[in-house]
Amino acid sequence: MHQVIGRFAPSPTGPLHVGSLVxxxxxxxxxxxxxxxxxxxxxxxxxxxxHPAFASSMIETLATYGFVWDGEIxxxxxxxxxxQSALDRLIxxxxxxxxxxxxxxIADSSxxxxxxxxxxxxTCLHKTPNMSTPLAWRVRTPNHVIAxxxxxxxxxxxxxxxxxxxxxxxxxxxxxxxxxxxxVDDARQQVTQVVRGADLLNSTTRQVYLQQALGYASPQxxxxxxxxxxxxxxxxxxxxxxxxxxxxxxATLQAxxxxxxRTPPVPSQIKRPDxxxxxxxxxxxxxx
Length: 288
Prior knowledge:
- The two termini are about 15 Å apart.
- Strand 5 and strand 6 (about 115-120) form a beta hairpin.
- Helices cover about 35% and strands about 15% of the residues.
- Helix 1 (about 20-35) crosses helix 9.
- It contains 9 helices and 12 strands.
- It has 2 domains: about 5-75 and about 180-280, Rossmann fold; about 80-170, Glutamyl-tRNA Synthetase, domain 3, CATH 3.90.800.
- The radius of gyration is 20 Å and the shape is elongated.
- It has helices spanning about 20-35, 50-65, 80-90, 105-110, 160-165, 180-190, 205-215, 250-260, 275-280; strands spanning about 5-10, 35-40, 75, 95-100, 115, 115-120, 135-140, 145-150, 155-160, 170, 195, 220-225.
- By secondary structure, it is an alpha/beta fold.
- The longest helix has 16 residues, at about 20-35.
- The strands form 5 sheets. It has a 3-stranded parallel β-sheet, with helices on one face. A 3-stranded antiparallel β-sheet has the order 4-7-10. Strands 5-6 form a two-stranded antiparallel ribbon.
């Protein structure tokens, strides 16, 4: 059997919060309970939103909470050449094409609404784009259903052309998008299991399609329920989620395990975060 490789891949747009911790604990326990590796990747590909200070804070917080990652930390901001190489492969096989359309032009010309808003009508697929403006690159989506079996959410099916449309891989400002970067990185790091929040569930069919187009193996997926605030909103920078406390760490970890409902009640004698994580690993019920 191949070794299990899991990962935690936060974006440094703010400090880690309870929702982040729950995702970290779930991915950590899942990988370690199977004797696997747990990788840490900083998803700072969008330099317009990410800040190095938040990345440093995230790393320090994870260490304080008892997490131990395998290997060196990977930063997406240092991986541009690999993303370009993957895009070039898709261009060579005519699976990606340039696009000069603005958001307003797409909104004005789109006649279909998908799961995330207006669907790109394929304007630049059918004519030469305006070469005098900065160009984005889009992937041609297939005219068939992409299906996955999620360990927690069950079967997910998207007809990418109808539900999502030709999505962007590289923006007109030169930044690569999350969808391409995460696929290339998971393949390079040989990730076998992805445990992450359910807010990314709808991205998975796009990622599986890119994996197929690039000849990569697809990992197993488990999308855990989101932690929400009193208004039912996902905890995030936008909803003013509080940074993880640097005191009461064991109690905070206990609360995250309670959210996951994967272990029995924590023994009261456990006083150190690393000991608590080890106990959780030993009592973990696998998603797969």
